[in-house]
Specification:
Elements: H1 3-18, E1 20-21, H2 37-49, H3 68-78, E2 81-82, H4 89-93, H5 95-102, H6 105-116, E3 122-125, E4 141-144, E5 148-159, E6 166-172, E7 183-189, E8 195-200, E9 209-220, E10 224-225, H7 231-247, H8 259-268, H9 275-303, H10 311-334, H11 346-358, H12 365-376
Helix pairs in contact: 1-3, 5-7, 7-10, 8-9, 9-10, 10-11, 10-12
Bound molecules: flavin-adenine dinucleotide.
């Protein structure tokens, strides 16, 4: 047996003993809160102790120091189980890899092991009421003091802020230079008394994200990630990690709009022999499989330290488009029962309602197309009329 096969067998044995098999009837959990937080933390710790957290991260920062093959093998085995790790997805997919790439040695040693061990939860504080796509127009400020910085402003759509211990925030540190140049990324303690988190409830009735207010929140000098006023570059690194994380999920039974789930739904409604439904299910299988294969290539390249650039945007766009396409198929399979609901379709209906959110989170489909057009296809660049104007001379709604 190869070492990968041994690893796979060990992962499956551990999952069978420690994780719940995927349950079709369980509620689809947009917030990641259907299990108590302590249970999520306990599970993440057990995952780490067993050697299945931070699989590709270096050992000196709590990782396992293994390669993408092991990561993919674990994800494939985990696809049939319900892992209650929702609160850790952002930290492990976005701030964690960014600190790994740009953080100081002290930051990596302080923050990465507790994240992998399930002791601390993270969120990403980028979007603001006045700037989501145009995040470089952000208006939250960080003012230098004698021994650090003071942050004031508001963020919005912050997933998981309600239970986060830390966040990575981008703030304006120099308004006298053009908007991309005067931004800095900081690590902020979400328990600081000046941080207020308010939930935002969506159409599903769940509250997957929040508004977060910063009122004279002090952060020390060593909270800067990367260089002062170079936060745009750090944000690009994090958005690239986010797009790979969102866009390259392995095919999973637990995805209510995935092939396995919709095939089961079609069978239950005796539609699996309907030619049009069969054709669309086959297409879903093909698209899901190609995306999984593409994700595998990107994970391999990322782990090998290669620059995947705008191809992360292609993965994110393909994943979001596939979810919207699968949502249409799911609606046609459910038919008029969509108005009645019921235990067998509840998860799928929640996922249909949430699918457009996936086309917005991590940068909208239009923004991904702009990036692909400019950086992959070499089309003309967006003129960006305000690109060279000092931020404090821009006409912004404040
Ligand atoms: C489920 C979910 C989770 C999220 N989690 C987080 C989080 O944890 N942290 C965080 O910081 N943010 C988060 N967000 C926010 C997300 O990043 C923003 O919503 C997104 O970047 C879009 O910004 P906006 O909402 O301000 O829309 P806008 O930027 O106002 O865009 C409105 C519309 O205009 C289009 N548009 C804008 N500019 C252009 C352009 N140049 N060319 C073509 N079309 C354009 C957009 O595509 C969109 O259709 C989350 C969003 C969702 C839906």
């Amino acid at each position: 047996m190869s070492s990968i096969e041994e690893f796979r067998a060990r992962a499956l044995a551990w999952l069978e003993k420690n994780a719940k098999p995927f349950d079709e009837a369980a509620e689809y959990d947009l917030e990641g809160s259907s299990v108590p937080l302590e249970e999520s933390k306990r599970f993440q710790k057990a995952l780490w102790e067993a050697g299945f957290a931070g699989i590709t991260w270096p050992r000196e920062y709590g990782g396992q120091g293994l390669g993408p093959e092991e990561l993919i093998a674990f994800n494939q085995e985990a696809a049939d189980f319900d892992l209650p790790v929702g609160p850790f997805v952002i930290g492990l997919g976005m701030p964690g890899p960014t600190i790994l790439e740009l953080g100081t040695e002290a930051q990596k040693k302080r923050y990465l092991p507790p994240l992998l061990r399930g002791d601390e939860i993270w969120c990403q504080l980028f979007s603001e009421p006045s700037g989501g796509s145009d995040v470089a127009s952000l208006q939250t400020t960080a003012r230098r003091t004698g021994n650090g910085w003071v942050i004031n402003g508001q963020k919005v759509w912050t997933s998981g802020a309600q239970w986060s211990d830390f966040g990575t925030i981008i703030a304006r540190t120099d308004p006298t230079v053009p908007k991309h140049q005067g931004i800095t990324m900081f690590i902020v303690d979400m328990h600081h008394p000046g941080v207020t988190v308010r939930p935002l409830v969506v159409a599903t009735g769940q509250a997957p994200f929040n508004e977060v207010f910063f009122d004279n929140v002090e952060v020390p000098t060593d909270a800067v990630v990367g260089e002062v006023n170079q936060g745009w570059g750090a944000a690009v690194v994090m958005l690239r990690n986010e797009r790979v994380t969102i866009g390259t999920g392995t095919r999973a039974r637990s995805n209510p709009l995935g092939f396995d789930s919709l095939l089961e739904l079609a069978r239950a409604r005796e539609l699996e022999t309907d030619t049009a439904v069969r054709r669309r299910l086959a297409m879903l299988y093909a698209r899901e499989s190609s995306l999984t294969a593409y994700g595998r290539v990107l994970h391999e390249e990322t782990t090998a330290g290669a620059e995947i650039g705008a191809r992360g945007s292609a993965a994110k766009l393909a994943g979001a488009e596939l979810a919207l396409w699968a949502a249409d198929l799911a609606q046609d399979i459910i038919g008029s029962d969509i108005a009645l609901g019921g235990a067998d379709v509840e998860r799928v209906i929640t996922a249909i309602v949430a699918a457009p959110g996936g086309a917005t989170a991590g940068g909208t489909n239009e923004i991904q197309r702009n990036i692909i057009g400019e950086r992959v296809l070499g089309l003309a660049k967006d003129p960006g009329v305000d690109r060279n104007t000092p931020f404090n001379q821009l006409k912004l709604s404040r």
